[in-house]
């Protein structure tokens, strides 16, 4: 007998699918009607409407009267606030990890860098994008402060959108990105707290400046 608790509700399936569809959209200006989403997901309107309302309440989508929903643009102020919070947390995490990672963790970090370098070399921006997010979340999880992990996870959607924009529109910057990640890892493995903090801070400042450059502003 199938355990009903293990079967995801249609509204939850709709939520996850619509959320990912909108986050992955190449053009954030596209407006999606509920009928289009229902047809795309091959679901009824009820679970789609429930999912859309949940996404709206979480601030992930904005409603366009008589049209549908879309991902709201990220403003200059939001970018600055987003990176300010990350620059308080992530350099601290990198510094505290310096000289403290176990051999198996060091191996995992080196493997991440190798995978990122491979994706950067081949120009696989989608794979690099996934690995970029994995790099930052892995460091936070290795440090183990659950409140910090939670705080960063709360910003994951915005992190996803901003890094996806950089990777998709500037694939030439992937090499720079992976070099910065490698400097963070090397400083951590060398046990240099100050260098690890500085390397992460430099990396985040670079990401912030790329996102607020006048030619790149959304």
UniProtKB/TrEMBL annotation:
Keyword Transmembrane helix: no
Residues spanning the membrane: none
Entry annotated with the keyword 4Fe-4S: no
Superkingdom in the source lineage: Bacteria
Keywords linked to the UniProt accession: DNA-binding, Transcription, Transcription regulation
Residues annotated as domain GntR C-terminal: 81-206
Database matches in InterPro entries: GntR_C, TF_FadR/GntR_C, Tscrpt_reg_HTH_GntR, WH-like_DNA-bd_sf, WH_DNA-bd_sf
Pfam families tied to this protein: FCD, GntR
UniProt protein name: FCD domain-containing protein
Organism field: Ponticoccus alexandrii
